[in-house]
Fold:
Amino acid sequence: MSTRIIRRLILNVHQSNQRCIFMTSRQQKHSPYRTRTGDKGTKLAGSASMSQMAASKHENPTSIHQEMVERQVLYPAQFKGAGDVRIQQVNKINEGKMVEIIWKDGKRSKFHSIWLRHNCHCPCCKIDVSCQPTVDLTEIPLDELHITDIDLTEENVLKVVWKEGDKTHQGYLPSSYLKTYCYSDGEIERKSNAARMNFTTDTKIPEIDYKEVMATETGLYQWLRILGDRGLCMVKNVPTEEDHLLKVSRRVALPHHTIYGDTFAVKDQPKASNAAYRNIALNLHMDQPTYESPPGIQMLHCLRFDDRIVGGDSVFADIHHIVDVFRQEHPDEFKTLCRVPVTFETLGYEDAAGRELPVHLQIRRPSISLNNYGDVVAIAYHEQITGPLQVDENDVEPFYKAYQKLIQAVHAWPYKYRTRLQPGDMITFQNRRALHGRAAYVSNGGLRHLQGTYINIDEFRSMLIYLQNTVGDGSPIKRMGLLDMY
Amino acid sequence: MVDRQVLFPAQFKGAGDDRIQKANKINGGQMVEIEWKDGIRSKFHSIWLRHNCHCSCCKLDVSGQPIVPLTEIPLEELYIQDTDISEENVLKVKWQEGDKTHQGYLPSSYLKTYCYSDGEIERKSNAARMTFTTDSKIPEIEYKEVMETQTGLYQWLSLLGDRGICMVRNVPTVEDHILKVSRRVALPQHTVYGYTFDVKDRPNASNAAFRSIALNLHMDQATYESPPGIQMLHCLRFDDQVVGGESVFADIHHIVDVFRQEHPGEFKTLCRVPVTYETIGYEDAAGRELPVHFQIRRPIISLNTYGHVIAIIYHEIMTGPLQVDEHDVEPFYKAYQMLMQAVRAWPNKFRVRLKPGDMITFQNRRLMHGRSAYVSNGGLRHIQGSYINIDEFRSMLIYLQNTVGDGSPIRRIGLLDMY
Structure:
């Protein structure tokens, strides 16, 4: 039996002892962790005190912090970027409606008692492993909830006793959690500002070798980090076999399918279901804005690009950077594009090359979405997937005026990335940030064949954050065009 | 246009009588006014018509994608010179754009369907409202019906679209058979738990669902920007000796519709203050393959421009640390608690103890689901689940509504669509 399993068995026993003390009588009755010491626990719960908590701690070999880690409701790596999480002092304020923490680094944060209560990490309040909170908010009289005691005896853990009506609850939160999620005194706006994308005028496409990405966690992290920061990255020397690109994407997540399948073949086809499957030029765009959640990462693997083919170069541009400039130069048009929703559609009731089923995708969404602080969080842009505008008549002409200006800004953007893909090249990019396009081409009997696939934006972000916290330095990542109000 | 596949007549089945009585330039050619044979009048801007021109220079065959170069059109100098309705079902237009002209055309069915003047968009927004019922009997359909005909498929999806829930009976109790059904609509929508997931009690479970504890009413995957549209839960085994484990469902859109009237202040708060949803797991755990750090902040309720509820995201045990300005914290919790109480107290819940062969299917973003705790007593409760992406579900429903059904516009399904 592994040490880990033995530790868990021990933990389960001591946890069941602890739970009696920490649970209120009502919680005990309905707790999934019913123990045979129920009666004793009931009596104790009504009169629980700090000394009893201290006593129980003395009985148990592990610290609360360690216990949270063992229960998998705390992954220390998650808070790597939190800095110095030691608490200097903590005071109840507003008659226990709030707590003020003075950190050792001098910062001060305030937390509401309900916020702390909802995020309590004790075994009654957070499920092991899944970390899901089980606090039943409907049973807490919010007007009568206040903190009676706080305790800092253990490092990196804030212990709290709440009074909720005629009951009490004893619990705790890790200080790293508190430091990371503090929200008072303008902290959320600061975090919103800090999440802004970095822009550059550098037009050289960052590169990484396929072997690096596949062989190590560090290589995988490097690739995703470049994608997160710069929005695009060329992966070199990917073996030119069909479906090999899925081996790469699978390091991150299952493929993000669309109506075109798990992968799609970008080559000239008769009766093409999409302009991409022809040899015509494609203006800068992002794929699939008809989907509520357009793909996060797009990967285009060049399988063949014969020398005799003329044209077909790829081009990319950072729509978030373009809009950032546009906002300053055309503030009214910017506002219009935030307010007036555009229609995106993909329709096809007959068979066509590249898709298996008939489609009627149609969505109305603003071109630009803002969060509560007016920061751009998401942009949707695809000239050739626009459908009939469905807005009040007074908005039609203002919309087209603003939209035309934005299209002109995109066309005129001076910082475009350009490349003629070579077989083995796999260009990967944030589909919602680095717009992509290509020049028209003439095949002259040759073949230009790219295989494409996508990664879901939430899953990409999840893996990037995980690696940032485990392999990287734990600093918060920047935005990536997700509809997240953060 | 039909041959070029830029016009699929079925698409406009619900347009009604799309014959044009009269078409006149107005405002010096800035707009066209159409008088339909049924008496309704619609106005269209010249730029709107120009952008949606269906001629072969303006719309790609088969894909139907517009290729009008908007940057080359001087918007201040675009106006309509002529209109012509001599050919039935088509509006021919001649535009002057600066020193150039363009001759093109649009189908009248397209115009009738997409008219937008004189309050039409608000009317369409009203008409798209979900219909609610207090009927708590779960609609049913037979597996064979769904699998064997387009009509059966349409019936199933139509029930899902209207009522939000439908029991599919007698699905063979074979693992992964669920995918045969979902595949009639789309590829499976995967999540971090895979293409399918097993709802059964497991040690070291990555999710509360993979245990025997009770699950309060919720919708799955609130951490994803696009939570699953349709959820399918196929009962493979539910042994008689298992006590508890009944399924329960409730229409959150209906609940919120009532809540809005009873608690308008709290309703506004829940539209404005974003909640945090998270799924975090850095260690191995049963049910998922890769580590996860999902965290999203989003409002619980989203409205369109007319104040109609378009999307609701609700999952009590997926909430994470609220990350909002301090002044919003207590108002949020007060409003959130009230909503939770409304959900708990909701009288029109659907309840069922699934039987092997039952596959309960529902709009994940409308019919919240939950279950009571269970004790296995040596038996097994095993349900296999899968999802269908909301856009793809809606796409297939609309296509079938237009080809098999009567072509009437469908209702909202909880998608973040401003319509």
